[in-house]
What we know:
alpha+beta; 16% strand; globular; 5 helices
Amino acid sequence: MMDNFVGGGITEGISVLDTAIKEAGEEADVPAEIAANLKAAGTVSFFHESERGIHPNTEFVFDLELPEDFVPHNNDGEVSGWQLVPVDQVVEVICSEGFKITSSPVVVDWLVRHGIVTHDNQPDLPEIVELIHLPLHNFY
C-alpha cells in the first residue's frame, strides 16, 4: 500500500515538530540536520470510515525539500520501499486502490498549495479544500 513519505502518532510530551523529525529518521533515515528543515504547512482534518466505524482524523502537515541524491532507507520495519512519482502522475496514484486513503488529503493539500490543482483545472476546488479542512473541533 502506497503512503506519504513519513508519518506517525504524536506522543505525549513530544512536540509535533520533534515527532516529525523523529519519524523522518526512523522511517526514512533522514539525517537530523536535513529533517531540521521541515516546514510546517498546516493541518488536514477529515472523517474516515473503516470497519470499526467513522473516525475523525487531523494530521499535521510538513514540507521537506530533500537533496536530489537523497535515498531513503527504512530503520523501523514499517516501510517496504519508496517510489518517486512525477507530479503529473500524482493524482492518478492517489486515486488508485494501491494508495492509503487516509493519506490522500495530505497529498491533495500539497497539490493545492503548490498551484498544481487550481480552480482552472478543478472547478470543485472550494469543496475539495473544505473537505480536507473540516472543523472537527466543532464536533467534539
